[in-house]
Amino acid sequence: MAHRPPILLIDSASLYFRAYFGIPESAARAEDGTPVNAVRGFLDMLATLIRVRGADRMICALDYDWRPAWRVDLLPSYKAHRVAPQGGEIVPDTLSPQVPMILEVLTAVGITAVGATGYEADDVLGTLSVTQPGPVEVVSGDRDLFQLVDDARPVRLLYVGRGVAKLDDCDDAAVRARYGVPADRYADFAALRGDPSDGLPGVAGVGDKTAARLIERYGSIAGILAALDDSDSSFAPGLRAKLVAARDYLGVAPTVVRVALDVPLPELPTALPSAPADPDRLLELAQRWNLAGSARRLVDALAAPRGGEKPSTSPQAG
């Protein structure tokens, strides 16, 4: 049976933030001086991914709500440190205007981009990962998405922590090797350990190794909380005290950390075009924003035969 090419599910913000900080503004400007470094870098990343993964389908997921109220209601510290004084997320002034540019180019090329009110891009990616025909490859630098890895479907995480040119192609064995837990327990592991970048305090004094041992022994946070109520459970006294002190947090953190898999999404076109959907519009945008090289590389990647070439990748996230 012929190997089916994968669908690439793109964590758009993860890639365009990486592009923005990876390419100097001075090296990528439109004729009027407008920075386009994030746009160029993002388009080049897509071209590389299409070429080396042999994908024939793609969806770019968007953050319609980067800090959903239902998560904040459960855990007020969630991403609180990233809220701008005037509200909204802290985003570099010269990046914000580039996001609509990226969306305009995607529309002209014919690549689907989708978000959902009240949900983060992670939730959109999670829902697509369980509803789109596999194989599925999720592309992100967000560790939270290790929880989506599922060898049975299969769903893999192409972790871009070291950049798109050095993808870490992660299956369940890779998650186990790095964190000591299976992918389907990663969310509980992350809640125990905490993540300052997302405002998750974790349990005081519990790091990766202790979190992994707790998950291995008790299976989940629910299992840990049940064991705390069992006088025969054999927690070390210091660890028991820390877990008891964090009981309220542990009661809500798994729901905050777990990616939603049931986001209401419309039927979406997923097939990658072999040529731009609106070539005249793409040419206009490329000329206006000085994107000719990046646009050409993306168009060439779309026109090339797909389904065979795969890059050499690390077996786990670095």
CATH topology category name of the largest domain: Rossmann fold
Q: Based on the structure given, which CATH architecture of the largest domain is correct?
A: 3-Layer(aba) Sandwich
Q: In which order are the strands of the major sheet placed? A: 3-2-1-4-5-6
- Structural class designation: alpha/beta
Keywords: DNA-binding, Endonuclease, Exonuclease, Hydrolase, Nuclease
Domain 5'-3' exonuclease: 3-274
GO molecular function, one term: 5'-flap endonuclease activity
Protein name: 5'-3' exonuclease
Task: Explain the layout of strands and helices.
Blueprint: E1 7-11, H1 12-22, H2 37-53, E2 57-61, H3 69-74, H4 98-109, E3 112-114, H5 121-131, E4 136-140, E5 155-159, E6 168-170, H6 172-179, H7 186-193, H8 208-218, H9 221-228, H10 237-245, H11 247-257, H12 279-288, H13 292-303
Helix pairs in contact: 1-2, 2-4, 2-13, 4-12, 7-8, 7-11, 12-13
Keywords: DNA-binding, Endonuclease, Exonuclease, Hydrolase, Nuclease
Function: 5'-3' exonuclease acting preferentially on double-stranded DNA.
Domain 5'-3' exonuclease: 3-274
